[in-house]
Amino acid sequence: MKSKIIRHEFVDLIPDIVEEGVLYISIPYATATHKCPCGCGEIVVTPIKPTDWEIIWNGKTISINPSIGNWSIPCQSHYWIEENKIIWLRKWDYSEIKTGRVKDKIAKARHYRKSGGWFSWMK
Ligand SMILES: [Zn+2]
Questions:
Q1: Do both 57 and 101 map to the same domain?
Q2: For 72-100, how does the pLDDT look when each residue is reduced to its tens digit (9 = 90+)?
Q3: 43 alpha carbon to ligand 1 midpoint, in Å?
């Protein structure tokens, strides 16, 4: 069964047993972990970093940006977590995954170039 709601829990350490329908957020480890909401049982880890995902906590609900595309696990599900709701997106086809990866690389390169630029300016 595909779930539509995920509740969040702030934890120091991600527990050994990841419950379905719970998004565990570890601030000390800057990581969020949840079981794939499609029901396949795979555990999805999203690092919280400027170049990966960001978490928006409004005091009540959690949103994660950008969307989560699980193309490395068999179900290949793709969804947004917005205000604790799972918003299903269509699966990416191979070329989109490739483009997504390329875009990701560009974003990362830009980010690091920016910080590199900052440090050279500091010198
Ligand atoms: Zn799945």
A1: no
A2: 889 989 999 999 999 998 776 767 766 77
A3: 9
Q: How far is CA 119 from CA 32, 74, 109, 123, in A?
A: 29, 41, 15, 6
- DSSP-derived pairing of the beta strands 62-69 and 43-47: unpaired
How far apart (Å, rounded) are the C-alpha atoms in residues 83 and 115? 31
Say if 1 falls within a structural domain: no
CA atoms within 13 A on the CB side of 33: 18
**Cα 92 to ligand 1 centre (Å):** 14
Cα(114) to centroid of ligand 1, in Å?
35
Q: Is residue 2 part of a domain?
A: no
If you search the block for the tokens 């709601």, which residue do you land on? 5
